[in-house]
Amino acid sequence: MRMIKNSLGLLAIFLFILSFAIAFTINFTPMFAFDVDYFNIPARTGLSKETILENYRILIDYLNYPWIESLQMPDFPSSESGLFHFYEVKVLFLLDYAILFIS
Questions:
Q1: Distance CA 93, CA 52 (A)
Q2: Per-residue pLDDT at 2 exceeds 90
């Protein structure tokens, strides 16, 4: 019985560390802001850094908050398949948060 408890404890610690690392990474917006500059995305797209970051914030808010039910970025049109993709990503984000909370 003790071995089962130890194994479950280790599994919980593993899931916590993994889900925390995922949550931290997907919400670390300074990394995205750095990438926008580093890869010179404004020059490549014709959009300002502020516009790109504003749309990114809208996307991150949609993915993080279950009460935001639709994704509408003002400067990026979205196809039905693209919106479905982001819905699936949202489900994965929320699953990660549930695992983080439970573990």
A1: 21
A2: no
Contacts of 23-30 with C-beta under 8 Å, sequence gap 24+, read 23/96, 23/97, 23/100, 26/60, 26/63, 26/93, 26/96, 27/60, 27/64, 29/53, 29/56, 29/57, 29/60
Residue type, 32: F
Chain-centroid distance, C-alpha 89: 8
Q: Using DSSP, state whether 50 is helix, strand or coil.
A: helix
DSSP letter at 41 equals H
Answer whether residue 1 shows pLDDT above 90. Answer: no
Show the 3-state SS of 54-81.
HHHHHHHHHHHCCCCCCCCCCCCCCCHH
pLDDT in tens, 27-78: 999 999 999 999 999 999 999 999 999 999 999 999 999 999 999 999 999 9
